[in-house]
From TrEMBL:
Protein name per its UniProtKB record: Probable WRKY transcription factor 71 isoform X1
Biased composition (Basic and acidic residues): 135-155
Biased composition (Basic residues): 158-168
Residue ranges occupied by any WRKY domain in the UniProt entry: 181-246
Composition bias, Polar residues: 103-114
Organism: Sesamum indicum (Oriental sesame)
DNA sequence: CGTGTTTGACCAGCGC
DNA sequence: GCGCTGGTCAAACACG
């Protein structure tokens, strides 16, 4: 399949409603690594983002909750167009919220029964809380793999069905990026192996599943195109890389110590992206946020260094 | 041959 | 229990 074919998105669905699509690199480094830090961008850089526009790409982030897990999407649109409204909107508004939540993994009580206050729908307090993958499902898969190696998949699968009661499925924290881009699979410095593709309900665009190829790194990402805005790619990362980006090993980013899961961008918001019908949301009410300009709060200034190093290095 | 993609099948969770 | 959906597996395949 040629690059042009991928960009044009013909969708020859097979009978399982999957289409044939390949992954494609992207000419700039993108913060796949959950350690990257949009807040280390200067205000000037945010107002005048470099690189992204040249590649017809924009990013936006928001944050939301999913059951026990916290979903983090930083509302950091480098291009302050209305694109990011979908992401920010997702925090406060049910329809887009559900859309993005589905994109980021699933809908749930948090999205369908939003908290009473807009602020409460966004939790930034537990960024250090790396939620372990459900041990039962993981063990099951491990058993399946082991069983496969032993040539006895079914046996191990059946065994794995005997799981402890009361175990509740938990997921790694996720970060969803909405990116205005012609290509789906944005280059982010890490190597990914595609392990699945599924049709998305109510969307003509499939969702692709990728796993970090590094050994012992269980970071996954999903890539899908927004149904509402086909020019927007929603990339959802799950988990933390336990290694440096291969693309930055020779660069300064490799010298940076790995960070825990990024603290959240509660205040990294853009008024022009906020839903008009939520005038009391935190986005508007935060005293440090100018109604005209995006702001970076001092206490957020050390986040995501890898993003700067890998992203800016390639585009300045 | 190593690496990555494709894709049919399978499983778990959830709602009804 | 059943059907639907999201997520994953893994054999087959493609490619450099």
């Amino acid at each position: 399949m040629s690059d042009e074919d991928k960009i044009n998105y013909s969708h020859p669905y097979d009978r399982d409603h999957r289409n044939v699509m390949g992954s494609e690199g992207f000419p700039f480094s993108f913060p796949t690594d959950l350690n990257f830090d949009p807040f280390t961008y200067s205000h000037h850089q945010l107002q005048n983002p470099t690189g992204l526009d040249h590649h017809h790409s924009q990013m936006s982030f928001t944050s939301f909750l999913h059951g026990d897990a916290e979903y983090n999407t930083l509302s950091a649109a480098f291009d302050l167009s209305c694109l990011s409204s979908e992401a920010v909107h997702a925090v406060n508004n049910s329809s887009s919220n559900k859309n993005l939540l589905e994109a980021a993994g699933t809908t749930n009580s948090a999205s369908e029964n939003p908290p009473a206050t807009p602020n409460s729908s966004v939790s930034f307090s537990s960024s250090e809380a790396v939620i372990e993958e459900d041990s039962s499902s993981k063990n099951r898969r491990d058993l399946q793999r082991k069983g496969c190696e032993d040539g006895d998949v079914m046996k191990s699968t059946k065994l794995s069905k005997v799981k402890k009661k009361g175990e509740k499925k938990q997921r790694e924290p996720r970060v969803a990026f909405m990116t205005k881009s012609d290509v789906d699979n944005l280059e982010d410095g890490y190597r990914w192996r595609k392990y699945g593709q599924k049709a998305v309900k109510n969307s003509p665009f499939p969702r692709s599943y990728y796993r970090c190829t590094s050994q012992k790194c269980n970071v996954k990402k999903r890539i899908e195109r927004s149904f509402q805005d086909p020019s927007t790619v929603i990339t959802t990362y799950e988990g933390q890389h336990n290694h440096h980006s291969p693309a930055t090993l020779r660069g300064s980013a490799a010298m940076l110590p790995p960070l825990p899961f990024p603290r959240l961008a509660q205040n990294f918001l853009f008024p022009n992206t906020c839903p008009q019908n939520h005038p009391n949301s935190s986005y508007y009410s935060h005293p440090n946020i100018s109604p005209e300009q995006p702001q970076i709060l001092p206490d957020q200034s050390s986040l995501f260094p890898n993003m700067v190093s890998s992203f800016l290095h390639k585009h300045i």
